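Example record used in the benchmark description.
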Amino acid sequence: MTRPSRALEHCYPAPVVGVDEAGRGPLAGPVVAAAVILPASGVPRGIDDSKKLSAPARAELCARLRKVAAVGLGLASVEEIDRLNIYWATLLAMTRAVEALGISPGMVLIDGNAKPRWDHPCQTIVGGDALCLSIAAASIVAKHERDCMMIAYDAEHPGYGWASNKGYGCPHHRAALQRLGPTPLHRRSFAPVAQALLPL
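Model output (structure tokens):
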């Protein structure tokens, strides 16, 4: 089984920034993006597509990455998701993540096929979190940080199961949505939430 490598990064001028997001699909919570510049040496072992890693592994790698890499975090709020739509809100979160680095990138490598409207040189890579090490690192940071947010939100809005489902529309979450109604953290532009707002 192959793991992400730095082969693509070596094709571009430094610093190379890897960007990925977490939270496009959930019914609740922000979308979070991370931007990561890996060090020339001392990169933590075990970096992979975040979907292939357990939550404890992501937490450990995120902590290690924050010690050795330049990390920028950006998010788009539920209000921005509803106003802009999830596509543009995701690109906004990515823009904020790169800006948070405070570094002018030589190249930005983005997971997926969409890129923000900015002046940075960038390349989109479909499946980049499984191919490019810096994108995989960004996927870990984005996923871990968003999961932590949703666990904290679960304590504020109990009953929806966000500590386990992280806001995704699983049967338990959808049933709670119908029973309890939407919270301020639910995305009203998403059909299941909009339907829960309709009068019975």
